[in-house]
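Re: the 616-residue chain
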Amino acid sequence: MKRRLCHIFAGMTAPCALLAFAPTSFAAQPIVVIESDMSEDQQALLHSVLGEVEAPARSLAQARRRAEAAAKSVRSVMRSLGYYDAEISAEVIEEKSDTRITEGKITSASRRPPQAVLRVKIGKRFTYGNVAIAYTDTMPDIREDVATQSLLKPGDPAEAAKVVATELRLTNYLQGHGYPDARANARSAIVDHATQKMDITYNLEVGRRTRFGNIQQIGTAYLRDSWPKMIAPFESGDLYTSKDINQLAARVTGTAVFEGVTATLAKDATENADGTVTRDVILDIEQGAINTISGEIGFSTSDGTGADITYERRNFIGFAQTLTVNGTAKTNEISAGIQYNIPYAWREDRELDFAADVARLDTEALNGDRVRTSVLGTQTISQKFKVGLGLGLEASRFDLNGEEVTAYLVEGLGRAVYDTRDSILNPIKGIQIEGTIAPSYNFGEEDGSFATVTLGGSAYKRVSNTFVVAGRLEGGTVVSDDFATVPRNRRFYAGGGGSVRGFQFQSISPRRNVITLDEAGETQTEIERIGGRTLLEGSAEVRYKGDGPIGYVGFLDAGSVSRSYDPAFDDIRVGAGLGVRYYTNFAPLRADIAIPLNPREGDADFQIYISIGQAF
């Protein structure tokens, strides 16, 4: 006998919702005891749906209510798995007090709380029978058979989740092949208990096959008319796909310039000779803040203490570009810079950056001035992989043994980045690998050519709800026939908050003793950090964050710098420490304290770092 089960999938809603939203419980016992011939995985599924209790039932009535509610939920779960003939019975077991005489004394056994018990006999699992698709308006004009998108195969277990997933897959397929108004009407699901099969008929309403028209931009944002068309992944006249219209909105959002973006089809349609219709795309873009000013204050016992101020102006000529002006005033650096970013430079997969800055540096390793400018074009190869090429100019003048050495550089810039991180300032999963090469020629006092090559990577993994482990490894070398042609600021140094914590900023470096005469004619010996040719450093962190905004970090950093092409494995400096993070909606505030585990003479006992964002 066949009968329509209108509640087949309605009954599945409650347990599915419980699966998704059941609160975490630390109860010692399940709400009911299940006795069945189910597999261990199926029993585990039922227990996860039913949940646990913090205390046993206080009365027979409460135990019965638990048993009845559990039986209803279990029946829905069994049907969703294809067991439509499952036999489910509920009862309450109660152990009464028992009086005994032991060694001439009367004792009374404790009374155990009533326990709800479900006995489940699953029976034979039903399978899919006939699976059909009916179109309520018109057949879709698609070469491929829409039915190939079905996840249902005759003879497979009749799982309700796959029925729902197939319906969504069918409508998505139609919307991805020119039918934006495709939708599913009420489906027919008939269970035959005689044959133990489920027949499914999907009722799809297709709508008109549609082509993209023109892009009409509305909203508060000002954009040049050519810009939306330039970044669109489709041309006017192309068949509609949901992927393309969603990608258009995503590309606008990806500029990080606008507050909100939606892309939809206009209601009006124009008939075409081939039977399709054309509908314009309505691109609604809200501008958001055009001008912003932000600041950052940082404290470090070695990296420099002071403030950074940044001004940004967005989309001021209608191409979603950003102009950034920043200034830095620290104990070891005074600088000002300007950057100009064009997110889509004449095509949607290309970015262009212009930058210029001037700085006065006063660190243990560098004392002098620097002016530089650069242009860098970045090509997107894929969502995760980008490459960049550019050109840079730099003029610098740094003190060397009391004398100023001037350098004028012309350099090429090459960069490749593979990035799967979920966040820049606070990643908890993914990896980043970045390689750079900068062939340069120095027209200054120590003229000659050299090339700087670096390769680094970091990885992040959440190992539990509260712990994240992170690691970083970086290396680099300067290729040159004469190392004297390499200006001081282009050599490698290690140590500091973004390098080897526990050691002073740029303190891990090849050194030499400089002997000078003071005013009294006595010799003075100073240690000069002269920078190295080869760098190798790495970091490891364990990050903890509970439910509140406060988190903690334990870390270990190591690094070395050598004057030769070979890394200085025999002179690796190691620092370790602890940190506190205060997590905001924007980024974590970081405070670290670190000590050098193998300090050299003159190294401080500890270093403190306070800034925004994780160390790496």
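The longest strand covers residues 403-419.
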